[in-house]
User: Fold this.
Amino acid sequence: MIQFGCPHSKDANSKNAGTGGPAGGSTFMVNGVQEKRNAGGNIKDELTQKFSNEPYTLSMANTGKKDSGGSQFFINVKHNNFLDWWRDDLSPSKHPVFGKVVSGNDIVDSISKTPTAPGDKPKTPVKLVKMTVLQQLYQKQDVCLGSSHLSTNQESYCVSH
Assistant:
C-alpha cells in the first residue's frame, strides 16, 4: 500500500512523518456541510458499504478501530482483505474503502515501487498535490488526483469513491 495525508509529511525527513493527524475539534467541509472532528482529531467512518480493500482502492488509514481516521489514507496495491472493516475473522484492524482508481494504475504501480528507507519511508519523497471530486455515481464519487509528483515527472490520475 502507499499512504498519504499525514500533516507531518510536509517535511519528508521528519521522524514523525506518517504518524500524525489533524487537531482535535478542527472543522472541514464535505459537500458544502461543515463537519467537526472529535477531541482526538478523528472522524466517523462515513462510507461503510462493504467494499473490499482490493488493488487500486482507497481506504481510510486509522488506528484500526471504528471511527478513528483523521487525514491519512492509503491506496491498496494488492488485495488486503484482512483490512476489510466488516471482517472479524481475519484481523481486528478495520479500514473502510472510500474510493477506487479508475485511470492511471501505472502511476500507482510506479509510486508503489519507490525505494524505501528503514521505517518504510520513501528515499525520494512522493507528494500528492491535489484531490478533486469529479462527479457522484450511486453513492460513489469519481475523484481525480491531479499533479501527483513522482520524482521529476508531473503525472495525473483519477480515482473513484
